[in-house]
Amino acid sequence: MNIDLRKYLQQNHNLLTWKERINILYEIISALYCIHKENAIHRDLHSGNILFSQF
Predict the structure, then answer these.
(1) I need a surface site. Which of 15, 45, 46, 50 has the fewest CB within 10 A?
(2) Residue whose C-alpha is closest to residue 49's, from 35, 14, 38
(3) Which of 20, 11, 10, 26 lies closest to 55 in space, CA to CA?
(4) What are the tens digits of pLDDT across the range 5-45?
(5) Could you give the dihedral angle defined by the CA atoms of residues 20, 26, 30 and 31, in that order, rounded to the nearest 10 degrees?
(6) H or E stretch at 40
(7) Considering Cα of 9, then 15, then 17, then 18, what sign does the dihedral take?
(8) Are 47 and 4 in contact (CB under 8 A)?
(9) How far apart are CA 34 and CA 15, in angstroms?
């Protein structure tokens, strides 16, 4: 299932545990770290621009 994070959160925000919420945040921070490490920036970062894939 691949949807943007905004839609996923709208559908599942009441079902997420704190562990799942922190894991999502950790993955976003890790991706931003990799982008910044390459001296790049993301100029339009919001939940609608983050692809969420649940394993």
Answers:
(1) 15
(2) 35
(3) 20
(4) 999 999 999 999 999 999 999 999 999 999 999 999 888 99
(5) 50
(6) none
(7) positive
(8) yes
(9) 29
The beta strands (E) that lie in the chain are given as 2-4, 51-53
**pLDDT value at residue 27:** 94
- 54, amino acid identity: Q
Q: How many residues does the chain have?
A: 55
What are the sequence ranges of the domains in the chain? 2-53
Residue that the structure tokens 């390459």 belong to:
38
CA distance 29 to 11: 22
Which pTM value belongs to this model?
Answer: 0.82
